[in-house]
Amino acid sequence: MSQQSFTPEEMERYSRHFVLPEVGVDGQLKLREGKVLIVGAGGLGSPVALYLAAAGIGRIGIAEFDTVTSSNLQRQILYTANDVGKRKSAVARERLESLNPHVEVRMHDTRLTSTNALDIIREYDIIADCTDNFPTRYLINDACVLTRRINVYGSVFRFEGQVSVFDASLGPCYRCIYPAPPPPELVQDCSQAGVLGVLPGIVGALQANEVVKLILAKGEPLVGRMVFVDALAASVQEMTVAKDKHCPVCGESPAITSLIDYEEFCSGPTSAVEKSDNHEMSVQELKRRRDARSPIFLLDVREPYEYAICNIGGHLIPLSQLESRLSEIEHAQEIIVYCHHGIRSEAACTILRKHGFHNVRNLSGGIDGWAHLVDPKMPRY
Fold first, then answer.
1. Are residues 359 and 233 in the same domain?
2. Residues 14-30 pLDDT 10s
């Protein structure tokens, strides 16, 4: 392509890209043809939007329905004190257009829902998930799988962040890694748990980097990999994450073929077995039982990569392999089953009871509840 495709002002603006062999004129044209939707214009969405606009992404959509508050200003760098009380969508558009008048900014001043998500997402090629709540994360994931869009995911909590690229045609989706949300009572937002102000900038910049790489088709995108950022330790770790062939939305026999009610999905599990004290064990009780060296058989039904992040011991059998490995489970002792948040382990308890294991209890809150209530030093994911 000829440099004449750009105005003299654009030639100067993108000059540092033009001299990169991996970008050049052709790459900058790809960026100009790019269509990216940013869901959430907060701590993560702010740096993502600014860097993508600066890079010359041709169409940037922002789905945001909130207003600017003073508490946002500690980390949401799109806004200033003069913007408090204004619609984030209006301020974001003005800021991005003033940064780069050559990009098209489309605002979706609405909450993303099961009703509108597919129509909005279809207008874009890549979706940057910059949200801060589980219902919208699962909604974005499922909508991206159903529309064959790429989901560039980021999240932050206190001093830790995560980044990955979910492309179900090449690797896992969000549900492959997190099959079920945590119990609502264990979920804390930024106002409750806090977040280091610079952390969303670090994670958002990594998300923007992945978006640019994907559009340029250069480098190695984080498909099948997840990056963990620890701001206090100034460390970055990477872990391989696998596609789950049993995933209900991107697996071999998907059960989810249309968008569902995500608020209901994330409001808490429903059980085929009526919950009672006989079927549940709190993490505090498990701690007392272990300290007393009570005879229990601890069964972890997560995936091996989850076990590598953190564990409280026990016998590891992923839920998808449970029925074929029942011979490994001790009948004589009381069986305590745990997973990440208690959803998969509840399903495992149902399977075990069906096969004649009656002395079975589910660890309420899972290993995340253990980290939250028993061992705060344990890594959380």
1. no
2. 999 999 999 999 999 99
Report how far residue 30's alpha carbon sits from residue 48's, in angstroms, rounded to the nearest whole number. 18
The answer to whether the beta carbons of residues 80 and 72 sit under 8 Å apart is no
Q: Is residue 8 part of a domain?
A: no
d(CA 70, CA 54) in angstroms, rounded, equals 26
- Please, what is the end-to-end C-alpha distance for the chain in angstroms? 45
Owner of token pair 């003069």: 82
Instruction: List the structure tokens of 115.
Output: 């009703």
Is residue 326 located within the same domain as residue 352?
A: yes
- Catalytic positions, written as ranges: 190, 339
Report the CATH number that the domain containing residue 369 is assigned in CATH. 3.40.250.10
- Residue ranges in the chain whose pLDDT is less than 50: 1, 270-277
Global pTM value: 0.76
Tell me, yes or no, whether 145 and 286 share the same domain: no
**Pairing mode, strands 225-230 and 160-166:** antiparallel
In angstroms, rounded to a whole number, what is the distance separating the alpha carbons of residues 277 and 210? 46
Give the three-state DSSP class for 217.
Answer: coil
Beta-carbon contacts of 302 under 8 Å, excluding residues fewer than 6 positions away, are: 316, 318, 319, 339, 340, 344, 367
Cα 137 to Cα 231: distance, rounded to the nearest angstrom:
23
CB of 99 within 8 A of CB of 50? yes
